[in-house]
User: What shape does this take?
Amino acid sequence: MLAEYTGVLVIFVVAALFVAGVLVLQRLAGPRRHFDAKNEPFDCGGSRASPPQPARAARVSSPRGRRAVKFHLVAILFLIFLVEGVFFYLWAVCFSETGAAGMLAITVFTLPLVVGFVYEWAKGALEW
Assistant: This one.
């Protein structure tokens, strides 16, 4: 019984070793940037008493900077339609076995996604 799961265990071990190797490699070979602003209190007013920023801070921006929300929205939409594509592939593989019940199930699954896609398109969420 346990011999059937040996392949899955091997895949998990290989994946864990790969992740650990990439993290160690990044730590050894990656750039070392230190952002002092991370440890300072947040000031949203820009008072006149604040000390001048060093010249290096103008060249290197913090990784916590603002980004447009539309990039994250496009990424989420991509993931949703990627998962939908996986389900379509699985449905197509066993289409002959499922018959009308499978067709009804995939229609119920697809209809909200199509309506959501049309709504996002009409709202302009896919415009760059």
Notes: The first helix runs from residue 6 to 29. The chain has a mean pLDDT of 79. Helices lie at 6-29, 55-59, 69-93, 95-123. The two ends are 53 Å apart (CA to CA).
